[in-house]
Write a structure and sequence with these properties.
The complex is a heterodimer. By secondary structure, chain A is of the alpha+beta class. Chain A has seven helices and eight strands; from the N terminus they run βββαβαααβαβββαα. In chain A, α1 packs across α4. By secondary structure, chain B is α/β, with parallel strands linked by helices. Chain B is built from eleven helices and 16 strands.
Chain lengths: 224, 373
């Protein structure tokens, strides 16, 4: 089975975009990751985007851009067999600190459920699953060396074994998020093969440089 | 390529080893007790399943104390080329608690990557390592990935290690969600009112059948099928329709190449929360279509051990297969209407080498199902 990359979405502290469609938007003054829900990247309104933790905001935004890049329509009401694997070095550390500091500052008597729910590394992926209607396998994973390429392999295993038809695979490094849509379907245009994308991800350091290499690949392939 | 289990061990609130946990469950005893590790005055419950003898906020994190004890017991040499999958939800979260409460240290010490490094050093594995975290399905998800990696031929030996601890962090969080029962958890009982937090560590050594035979390892079972799904419905509660768990179970049965009528018993997630247990029963009724299959939960015995739950439950299910008997659901007094004739407060005899279905579910609507043969 030939596994292909269908779309790639990204978010950084200075802007957002997608690779195949060539979307690239720099944040204006006052804009940022917090304002992404108002910038038209979601095809259905994102209720309570403001209450999400930082990891979830970056994840759902990059996923929205990746799905749009891949031409995959979505709706929380119309669920799809798409799985998601996310990785990041810090996991839920920032939300862990926010939750427990708040609890300690309240005299270790009052804890807030709305902070606690983001203290799992997989919580951001859960927010994405709910909003985009993703009903395939969902897990957070991290490698010792922070490698991202290994999760492409895990996704391929899932697709080839028939565990799901399509996967979202993404990485978050501080304020940068990058998500790929991959599948083994024959129909439609692929951006590149998974082998090409894997090679770039494996040999390149940092999300901005991965995006630069993917843009070079796009030019080489003559994708308008 | 078949993915076979060659070694497994657990450390639970019943003490070290599968025997301790198995004997406790068969005797219909609970190891859930009043919590003394931290103050629960302002919290919803003061019961938890804790492992005796651990030092809270000491030199070493709770999970590293547990994992060290676990591997100190093993007489089996872990192959150095094993790929390591570490399953946990909160790992060394007590290190972060300590740093915030005392205002010293670095909360980043509690990162899952740091824990992975420590477990790699402890086990001496060199085959690469990953943390797998999928809420309370973490270790069943890791076991599924181990089997998938072996079946695909990408590895022939995978060590899955699972752990989670009872911490003020997690306990206060479940309390804020009002998910805790005031008394030890009563899975599938009419009067169940929530879960009891528990802690455990476990490991599972999975090999390709070919390698296990070549190395003359004792094969104790096979991870014959697995399925994972998401409800895409709610962050903390399961879908009441149970369609997500049904999909995971059907995927696991397909993966194993068997039909539902071959399943001999079910090790359920059975947390004791009203919604989880009702959702599971609805799923079992949908999958088994009129056939009452013996179902049990071990969480009345040891509490909900979160990221370690799947692996501990696999170990107990393996034992049940070997002994041809499934344990009672501890603390069950009056079975909920939809669970009558499925669950029992007594041990039950099952077919020799019955095929087991192990189900788990977690926050974010994650579902997992494993078929053990």
């Amino acid at each position: 089975m030939m596994i292909s990359v269908r779309g790639i979405g990204w978010v950084t502290s200075t802007g957002y975009g997608s690779v195949r469609l060539g979307l690239q938007h720099q944040f204006a003054q006052g804009e940022g990751i917090h304002s992404l829900a108002k910038l038209g990247i979601f095809s259905q309104p994102f209720k309570n985007f403001g209450r999400l933790d930082g990891m979830s905001r970056k994840t759902v935004s990059a996923v929205a851009l990746a799905l749009q890049d891949a031409g995959v329509e979505y709706s929380s009401a119309c669920k799809q067999d798409i799985g998601i694997i996310g990785t990041s070095r810090e996991g839920s550390l920032k939300s862990d600190i926010d939750y427990f500091k708040d609890y300690v500052e309240n005299g270790r008597t009052l804890s807030r459920a709305n902070l606690f729910i983001y203290t799992l590394p997989s919580s951001a992926l859960g927010e994405a699953a709910i909003h985009f209607g993703l009903i395939g396998p969902l897990l957070y994973a991290t490698a010792l060396d922070g490698s991202f390429a290994e999760f492409f392999d895990m996704s391929v295993e899932m697709i080839v074994a028939g565990e799901t038809g399509r996967m979202l695979v993404g990485n978050i490094v501080e304020d940068e998020a990058l998500y790929f849509v991959i599948d083994g379907k024959q129909e439609g245009n692929a951006f590149c093969s998974l082998i090409e994308a894997r090679s770039i991800v494996e040999s390149t350091h940092g999300i901005p440089e991965i995006l630069r290499q993917l843009s070079i690949l796009k030019i080489k392939k003559g994708i308008a | 390529m078949r993915a076979v289990i060659v070694e497994t061990d657990i450390l639970t609130p019943f003490g070290p080893g599968i025997d301790a946990c198995w004997d406790g469950l068969l005797a219909n005893r609970t190891a859930i007790s009043r919590l003394t590790r931290f103050s629960t005055k302002a919290l919803f419950s003061d019961y938890a399943g804790t492992i005796p003898g651990l030092t809270y906020h000491g030199e070493m994190s709770l999970v590293m104390q547990m994992i060290s004890q676990l591997f100190a017991r093993t007489g089996t040499k872990i192959p150095t080329d094993a790929k390591l999958l570490l399953a946990t939800t909160k790992g060394e979260i007590d290190l972060l608690e300590k740093s915030i409460i005392t205002g010293t240290g670095d909360g980043a010490e509690s990162s899952l990557s740091n824990l992975l490094k420590k477990v790699i050093n402890l086990t001496g594995t060199t085959g690469g390592g990953l943390v797998v975290s999928a809420a309370c399905t973490s270790s069943s998800a890791a076991a599924a990935r181990a089997a998938a990696t072996i079946r695909s031929g990408h590895a022939d030996c995978v060590l899955v290690v699972a752990c989670d601890c009872v911490s003020e962090f997690v306990f206060s969080g479940f309390s804020s969600l009002m998910a805790l029962d005031k008394v030890p958890a009563r899975p599938f009982d009419k009067n169940r009112a929530g879960l009891s937090v528990g802690e455990a560590a476990a490991y599972l050594l999975v090999m390709s059948e070919e390698r296990a035979l070549r190395e003359k390892r004792p094969i104790t079972g096979e991870i014959a099928g697995w399925g994972m799904s998401d409800d895409a419905n709610h962050m903390t509660g399961p879908s009441r329709e149970s369609e997500g768990l049904v999909r995971a179970i059907n995927a696991a049965l397909d993966s194993a190449g068997i039909s539902a009528d071959r399943v001999g018993f079910v090790s359920a997630h059975g947390t004791g929360t009203p919604y989880n247990d009702a959702m599971e029963m609805r799923a079992f009724r949908a999958v088994f279509r009129g056939r009452n299959v013996p179902v049990y939960s071990i969480k009345g015995g040891i509490g909900h051990t979160m990221g370690a739950a799947g692996l501990v439950e696999m170990a107990i299910a393996q034992r049940a297969r070997r002994e041809n008997v499934v344990p009672p659901t501890v603390n069950l007094k009056d079975a909920d209407d939809d669970a009558i004739a499925w669950v029992s407060d007594h041990r039950r005899v099952v077919e020799p080498n019955a095929i087991a279905l192990v189900t788990n579910a977690g926050f974010s609507g994650i579902n997992s199902a494993l078929v053990l043969a």
